[in-house]
């Protein structure tokens, strides 16, 4: 299951029109035997699907509307005084 933090933080990667999950290298084994982990886990957040892209654009638009509304409201308060 995808959590909200992954959607918001990982949403930026979801805008990519490439398969980000395919670009994640497999864990590497070094000559001394230690293992270098993957930079991040493969998750559905990064799937290059239309539904994922639509969700990310929706979240971007929602954030823009909320912050624009807050900014305009604060500006309106400043104008009254």
Low-confidence region ranges: 1-5
Mean pLDDT, to the nearest integer, reads 77
Number of strands: 2
Number of domains: 1
The largest sheet, given as strand count, sense and whether it forms a barrel, is: 2 strands, antiparallel
Q: Counting H and I runs of at least 4 residues, what is the number of helices?
A: 3
Rg: 19 Å
Proportion of residues in β-strands: under 5%
Order of helices and strands: HHEEH
Helix coverage percent: 55-70%
As laid out across the biggest beta sheet, the strand order is: 1-2
Shape: elongated
Structural class: mainly alpha
Head-to-tail CA distance between termini:
49 Å
Protein model, in words:
This protein has one domain (4-80). It contains three helices and two strands; from the N terminus they run H-H-E-E-H. The chain has helices at residues 4-14, 20-23, 50-80, and strands spanning 28-29, 35-36. Helix 1 packs across helix 3 (50-80).
Question: How would you briefly describe this protein structure?
Answer:
With 81 residues, this protein is mostly helical. 57% of the residues lie in helices and 5% in strands.
Layout of SSEs?
Elements: H1 4-14, H2 20-23, E1 28-29, E2 35-36, H3 50-80
Antiparallel strand pairs: 1-2
Helix pairs in contact: 1-3
Transmembrane segments: 55-73
Keywords: Membrane, Transmembrane, Transmembrane helix
Can you give keywords for this protein?
disordered N terminus, 2 strands, 81 residues, single chain, mainly alpha, two-stranded antiparallel sheet
């Amino acid at each position: 299951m995808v959590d909200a933090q992954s959607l918001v933080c990982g949403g930026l990667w979801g805008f990519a029109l490439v398969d980000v999950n395919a670009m994640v290298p497999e864990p590497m084994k070094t000559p001394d035997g230690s293992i270098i982990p993957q930079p991040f886990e493969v998750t559905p957040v990064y799937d290059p699907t239309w539904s994922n892209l639509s969700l990310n654009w929706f979240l971007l638009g929602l954030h823009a509307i909320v912050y624009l509304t807050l900014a305009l409201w604060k500006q309106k308060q400043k104008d009254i005084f």
